[in-house]
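Dear support,

I submitted the protein below through the web form. The confirmation email said the job was done, but the results page showed an empty box. After a refresh the structure appeared. I'm attaching both so you can tell me whether what I see now is the final result or a partial one.
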Amino acid sequence: MASDNAKTALLCAYTLACAKQYAKAEGLILSDTELAKTPEAMDLLARIRVEQGDLAEARRLWQEIQSLHPEHRPSQLALRNLDKPPRKRRNRTWAIIVGVAVLLVGFLLGAFFMHREPDRIATFDWSTLPNKQALQQLEQYRGKAVRITLGSEYLSDPKRSAHRAVLTDMVSQALGVKPECVFLAQAPEGLPAGAIRVELYRR
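What the results page shows now:
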């Protein structure tokens, strides 16, 4: 399992890639040996190759992921879509259906729990994606917080489902809870663009 530093770097790489800064995203991944070996990082590199028109290298990367991690669903779908017409392939490169489904489930479950009047124990406002220090602040609530909401217009964009998945994993590990306990919530009124409101609940 990748370290928190590697996961933070991956999250930054996703952000760079979405901004079409492919060289910077690739450089960030390849500069971290631990990160470069993860299926998530290899998958991102393959998607960058598709955007750059290098389908042969994208196929090689996805096939390598499958040989090492046959259960990796995104690479399975990517290989299946790689031979489709360019327009369909391009539209599906970043919009992973599974990620959107998880996003919608998070919204529904988050709305369900909101009606249970949970006991909020802490709130954090992050101006941007969290660094190591921000995640360490959460660790004091390990064993106390059992449900977490992430309120952000930035994360609610379906195109950023991969960002949300990585951030969910980082937050859940910092608090010692399952990723299923982290939900996407509506961004509170007045929250700056790109900011993230983190709320911790006892139940």
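Response: this is the final, complete result; the empty box was a page-load delay. Residues 98-201 form a domain with the 60s Ribosomal Protein L30; Chain: A; fold (CATH 3.30.1330).
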